[in-house]
Amino acid sequence: MSDTLHIVCPACDAVNRIPVARLGEGPKCGKCHAPLFAGHPTELTTARFQQHIERSDIPVLVDFWAPWCAPCRMMAPAFQQAATQLEPRVRLAKVDTEAEQALGARYGIRSIPTLALFKNGRELARQPGAMGTADIVRWTLGHL
């Protein structure tokens, strides 16, 4: 493993090189100075999705959801809580499949919520259905 990791800024999408030893020290983006890890999921659009999935050296856990979906709304606080437990080892992100229909279609999202875990641009695992915080954390770590 390298001594540095590429981390995509959740605010401006700039790719930052961060020493592994400093990951837990609250690193900030070199371009916009926003925290690289804020303890909450990053909202991704179609335009931002590839940058975060392909350029980040840490895994990205994506929640494909929609605002009209009751189980999605029910799982949202658990996904938020999972972000505080999984960062900085894993970036958590959300994709609104209602607003970003092309992404949902591209990844064959048939039911929501669906969690998909990506590493180095490849999908590692997928889990449909609402989950609690502990289950999200356990499922994610079990696939890394």
Automatic annotation (TrEMBL):
InterPro entries: Thio2_N, Thioredoxin, Thioredoxin-like_sf, Thioredoxin_CS, Thioredoxin_domain. Keywords: Disulfide bond, Electron transport, Metal-binding, Redox-active center, Transport. Pfam families: Thioredoxin, Zn_ribbon_Thio2. PROSITE patterns: THIOREDOXIN_1 (PS00194), THIOREDOXIN_2 (PS51352). Residues 23-144 form the Thioredoxin domain. Belongs to the thioredoxin family. NCBIfam families: PRK10996.1 (NF008229), thioredoxin (TIGR01068). This is Thioredoxin. It comes from Thiorhodococcus fuscus.
